[in-house]
Please model this.
Amino acid sequence: MGMRKVAVVGAGMTRFVRRALETPKELAYEAAKMALDSCELTLKDVDGVVVGSAVDAFDGFHMKGEYLSDGAGGWRKPFIRHSVGGATGVFSCIHGWMHVASGLFDVCLVVAEEKMSSCQPHPQGAFLTVYDSILERPLGLNLTWIVPQEMNLYMSYYGYSSEDVARVAVKNKRNALGHPAAMMGEELSVQDVVNSEVISWPLHRLDISGVADGATAIVLASEGVAKRITNKPAWIAGAGYNLDTWYWTSRDLVYPVYVEKAARMAYEMAGIREPQKEIHVAEPYDPFTFKELQNLEALLLADRGKAAQLLADGVFDRNGRMPVTPSGGLLGVGNPISAAALMKVAEIFWQLRGEAGKRQVPGSPKIGLAQAWGDMMQAGTVVILKN
Amino acid sequence: MEKSVQLKGTAIRESDIKEGKVLSIEWVPKAQYAWDTGVAIGHFLEELKGGKIIGMKCPRCRRIAVPPRMFCELCYEPNWEWVYLQDWGVVRSFCISYLRWDASRMKEPFIPSVIELEGASEGMGFFHLIGEIDPQEMKAGLKVKAVWKDVKDRVGAITDIQYFKPA
Amino acid sequence: MPLLERISRNTQLKAWEGEFPVQYLYTFGVAGERFFREIKENAKIWGVRCPQCQITVVPPSLYCERCFERLEEWVEVGHQGEIHTYTICYREMDGFPKDSPTILALIKISGVEGGLVHRVGEVDLKDIKIGMKVEAVFKPKAQRKGSILDILYFRPAQK
Model:
């Protein structure tokens, strides 16, 4: 295709906390500095900067990218910020990849940041600005009125019970106990999740990931440069992204076809024909428990209607046949939107290099996949890394 | 990225701010909007005032969409054929919510729903609330009908329909 | 046919009104917390020095945006400065006329890269000029909250 090979060569992140003292700039700086230090690069080595941040309304800074720019190393550099809602963090990797694969940059710093705590009375209020101002907001529409409808349809269609989906929270919160940034790692039982407060049936409180402040950063480099920087580059083998209709009421809420389309775009680029066999470790997006299962099926990593059984059988455990969300995910580490999704990419990076510590999946994984979902719940973004 | 790595990021609590241990500043934005409804929704709202629901038909793919739109986003063709729909239909999805937009809890739940209105194309959904039903009785496939406000109280808004109730 | 031509009765075009319902509670960050504490408690303005780039920055930042090093060398920069540029404001933010015009200036603090945006007071409009030497005037301690408004304004430097 005429595109250059690109690798992830460094990564860094802050802790994810419910409310950070740090400003958005300082969060971006801490993640970016750690990422640069991890591969012994300085700002001088960086050709361009890409920033992902999902929702301006969280901290009331319009032109959020420009605000973050100095903390993200963007002073007097080619700089661009993007947003695709919840899908942002994985798209951040793709956006950075475009800059390097095209030949424009040799080294690109990618920073994803979100500070949600400044928004009062609750960051969920900022989502109000996503919905139709004339036909939906006057009825009081909010995120917990849409996602549980999708959850309800999905679970009814495949006959999944609350216990089936609760197992995702149990697995991910347990995995998160091994993550230094985690906000919500804990040992829970399926009953704990099912007995937690009903927020918006069928959604229980422990089915939901926590809003947070945090930032993640990765460093991308072109082939020749990557090999000089590290002997363990994680090559970006596939990238895919897709957007479905904004009219969520006429979308198939059971099957996110836009996730499948994004996955196929990435699989084709990576030369992957049998994802269930060829993907060794996966980080699908898990802001809500059922979402991990639904995404796995749309990513073609589980047959439709079968993900819950595979989870119950232990296939997705860290020592299972295909570990899923070994990081602990959004449910376990926390959900500062853009930073959380890029954290999943960083996790695949660390897993492929054998640097995931307590979270390391056995068997020297060679190919990993990270996926995110967002916007008006219509965007799918997928990245595949190979070592 | 071992568990033992010390990452940056300083957690603070709301009480730290309230007690002045951490300095802060409040900002209340004064952002008000007057959104042009557009040709399609402007007409839709007028029809709601008259107690009717109107959709739009695409000349190419024949899809009847509600809410109506001036172009079909699938075909990318201009649309101009208005079609009246029924004010009853079938529940496609629903949830039972105790949470408001600001994450505060409600005692009595709302029942947000996507309804397939009679006259619209299959798969075309319409968002509204379900009322006059015990939440335990809710199920997909329930036939529901709009409960309108009195004609004197209708202003041309989505709330001219109060909710849909079991038909 | 372009879409706009299809409007036949413009009286039917409506607008739907609404507002942005959220508010914000900002903390100042690691560097900002210390900067505003010093203003609140001691009426002192501090900056931070980057040894690599040889510049002092106000307001102080956790890091140098030019070389990306962590900055730890805090320095007191004093209250003196000069007017780098200014404007005279006749209207409020909502467009209504002010009771009396106010002067907003970019004050370059002596020895510092960058400066502070603030008001200028105790001066006639006709006397204000670029390069004028100014000094900060603080609120009394009991009224200071840890805010940029703890500085009332800058006034012509007293000899």
Remarks:
- The interface with chain C takes residues 10, 12, 17, 22-37, 39, 42-43, 45-46, 70-71, 78, 80, 101-102, 156-157 of chain B (CB under 8 Å).
- Helices of chain B lie at 14-18, 38-49.
- Chain B has a mean pLDDT of 94.
- DSSP finds two helices and twelve strands in chain B.
